[in-house]
């Protein structure tokens, strides 16, 4: 079993920054990739950014140039540095991890709110 725990969400003003962290723990943590998704009220969950264990990254067009995803394979932690935040970034952010056996796990989510 694998557990994902996010931290770092909160309330920030437009133009501000936040850094999200997600740590994976458990007896079966063999990570192929990790990522961040978000879900705003009344909308479907969408991909924000993903990163493989070899540090290959992928970003949603809406966050390119503003968000940076990184991974610490040794510590099994994925980070999302969010800069130049705008109101449209307000959502619950979920960490996700895919193991080498193909099983995907989700965290419980952390709220990010951007005020204008």
The run of helices and strands is EEEEEEEEEEE
Please state the overall shape, judged from the principal axes of the Cα atoms. Answer: globular
Tally of individual helices: 0
List how many beta strands DSSP finds: 11
Mean pLDDT: 95
- How much of the sequence lies in strands comes to over 45%
Are there runs of 5+ residues with pLDDT below 50, and where? none
Polypeptide structure, described:
The chain has 116 residues and is mainly β. The chain contains no helices and eleven strands. Strands 2, 4, 5, 6, 9, 10 and 11 form a seven-stranded mixed sheet that branches. It has a four-stranded antiparallel sheet with strand order 1-3-8-7, with no helix packed on it. The mean pLDDT is 95.
Brief account:
With 116 residues, the chain is mainly beta. It has strands at 2-7, 10-13, 18-26, 31-39, 46-52, 57-59, 67-72, 77-82, 91-99, 104-106, 110-115.
Keywords:
116 residues, mainly beta, four-stranded antiparallel beta sheet, 0% helix, 59% strand
Could you give the topology of this structure?
Blueprint: E1 2-7, E2 10-13, E3 18-26, E4 31-39, E5 46-52, E6 57-59, E7 67-72, E8 77-82, E9 91-99, E10 104-106, E11 110-115
Parallel strand pairs: 2-11
Antiparallel strand pairs: 1-3, 3-8, 4-5, 4-9, 5-6, 7-8, 9-10, 9-11
